[in-house]
Amino acid sequence: MPILLRWLSRRSLRFLHALGGALGWAGYLLSPSYRRRLDQNAALAGLSTAERRASVADAGALVMELPRVWLRPVDQAIGEPLRWEGEALIADLLERDRGLVLLTPHLGSFEVSAQAYAERFGARQPMTVLYRPARQAWLRDLEQRGRARPAISTAPATLAGVRLMLRALKRGETVGLLPDQVPPQGQGVWVPFFGRPAYTMTLAARLVQQTGAAVAILWTERLAGGAGYVVRALPLPEALPAQAEGDAAAALAINRAMEATIRKRPTQYLWGYHRYKTPRGAPTA
Questions:
Q1: CB 169 within 8 A of CB 99
Q2: What CA–CA distance (Å, rounded) separates 237 from 216?
Q3: Half-sphere exposure (Cβ direction) of 227: Cα atoms closer than 13 Å
Q4: What's the Cα-to-Cα distance from 131 to each of 147, 185, 264, rounded to whole Å?
């Protein structure tokens, strides 16, 4: 597997996205459970048949670009055509020196988002990224090495990882996380996501509320034909409720923000992600 991944890492982005599109369709056609989940989740958001089909190929493109994103030398820039939109927003929030929480949904090339931030702003303010380690040892090792970049630290989705993120924010640094990732039991609340109750993390809002950090949305669009990426920074559509209003109110506000972001490019969202699952031991909705 490592030999194949290294070979893939040297292929062009155009080739990887084309191959990924084919593999995305293979997975969709060969896995009834994945196909059913993707179709149901996409239907909740009102995607057309054409949009749903495009999302199948885009999910495969995401997977196949990872070797190129993770396995290039640590001192080498992303290397693909990459431009920013909303870069001034990030620069302005960093000027406030009170820490920054960046929220990135499972949309587009979300692995590129953290690396793009580190390349552009990391020397000024490093970033700690929350991640959930893969179960397979070889993939876990690949993720750890691929994400270990200058100005990027990783924090596991555990209590120890949360402490690392809190300390980073208190130092005035940046943290990044995927707020639409299903949290473990006891670390979420049930609130609507595209109209269906989803177990939603409370951590994202608590980091902001407990530290006074600034918050923004960061996501990366994958351009067609291997043409590169556009990294987009956006303000939250609405201010987060105060902590006194409860976890559910804050989680719902973040879900609404993620929905609005996803609707900007719905074909690049991971509709096959098991977003509505009930974590082991968690109460049902």
A1: yes
A2: 10
A3: 6
A4: 10, 16, 25
User: One-letter amino acid identity for 205?
Assistant: A
Q: What is the DSSP string of 167-235?
A: HHHHTT-EEEE-TTSPPPTTSEEEEEETTEEEEEESHHHHHHHHH--EEEEEEEEEPGGG--EEEEEE-
Contact between 195 and 255 under an 8 Å Cβ cutoff? The reply is: no
Say if CB 234 and CB 121 are below 8 A apart.
no
Residue 270 near residue 106 (C-beta atoms within 8 A): yes
The pTM score is 0.94
Give me the pLDDT at residue 134, please. Answer: 67
Distance CA 201, CA 132 (A): 13
Residue 116's SS3 state is helix
Tokens 């390349």 appear where?
119
User: Which residues of the chain, if any, have pLDDT below 70?
Assistant: 1, 134, 136, 138-140
pLDDT in tens, 194-222: 999 999 999 999 999 999 999 999 999 99
Q: Say how far apart CA 78 and CA 73 lie, in whole Å.
A: 10
Q: What angle do CA 85, 88, 92 make, to 5 degrees?
A: 145
Written as six digits, the tokens of 171 are 């130092």
pLDDT value, residue 149: 84
And the tokens for 234? Answer: 């956006």
pLDDT digits (tens, 9 = 90+) for 110-158: 999 999 999 999 999 999 999 877 676 766 677 777 777 889 999 888 8
